[in-house]
């Protein structure tokens, strides 16, 4: 173990090697690929991003399947964190198959007896 002053150079070398490996792994990930493929603009609100705030730009999977990552990026769109949250909230609130029968309708009518109540002496 080599030490320079209080610095352990072997430990530092391992740390740098691990950091480079982790960076390369992320670089191959879909976010890095999407950031290289598309302009740094939110697909909804059209906000522009640069290196100082690109961390706020996220990759949205159009079909909501995070395992569907085609090489051409056709399942991705870049959204700011606010629009991305809004998109997922909309997805949760709407029926996913487009069939109205999948939506549960309310069976209780809170005003059902209102007419009778108003007509009581």
List descriptors.
two-stranded antiparallel ribbon; about 120 residues; two-stranded antiparallel sheet; about 40% helix; 4 helices; about 10% strand; alpha+beta; His-Me finger endonuclease fold
Q: Look at the structure and give the mean pLDDT.
A: 81
**DSSP summary, beta strand count:** 4
- The end-to-end span amounts to 96 Å
Strand content: 5-15%
Order of helices and strands: EEHHEEHH
Structural class: alpha+beta
CATH class of the domain at 30-95: Alpha Beta
The CATH topology label of the domain at 30-95 is His-Me finger endonuclease fold
For the CA atoms, what is the radius of gyration? 26 Å
Strand order of the largest sheet: 1-2
The assembly state of the depicted protein chains is single chain
- Percent helix range: 25-40%
The total of helices stands at: 4
Care to describe what's here?
This protein is α+β, with helices and mostly antiparallel strands and 121 residues long. It has a domain at 30-95: His-Me finger endonuclease fold (3-Layer(aba) Sandwich), CATH 3.40.1800. Helices cover 39% and strands 12% of the residues. It has four helices and four strands; from the N terminus they run ββααββαα. A hairpin with a 2-residue loop joins strand 1 and strand 2 (7-8). The chain starts with a strand and ends with a helix.
List the helices and strands and how they pair.
Layout (H helix, E strand, L loop, with lengths): L2 E2 L2 E2 H20 L1 H8 L19 E5 L14 E5 H13 L20 H6 L2
Antiparallel strand pairs: 1-2, 3-4
Quick summary:
The protein has 121 residues and is α+β, with helices and mostly antiparallel strands.
């Amino acid at each position: 173990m080599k030490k320079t002053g209080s610095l352990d150079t072997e430990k530092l070398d391992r740390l740098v090697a691990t950091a480079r490996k982790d960076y390369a792994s992320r670089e191959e990930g879909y976010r890095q690929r999407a950031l290289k493929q598309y302009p740094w603009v939110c697909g909804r609100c059209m906000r522009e991003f640069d290196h100082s705030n690109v961390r706020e730009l996220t990759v949205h999977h159009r079909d909501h399947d995070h395992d569907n990552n085609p090489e051409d990026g056709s399942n991705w769109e870049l959204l700011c964190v606010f629009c991305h949250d809004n998109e997922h909230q909309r997805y949760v609130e709407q029926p996913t198959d487009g069939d109205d029968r999948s939506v549960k309708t309310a069976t209780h009518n809170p005003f059902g007896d209102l007419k009778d109540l108003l007509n009581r002496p």
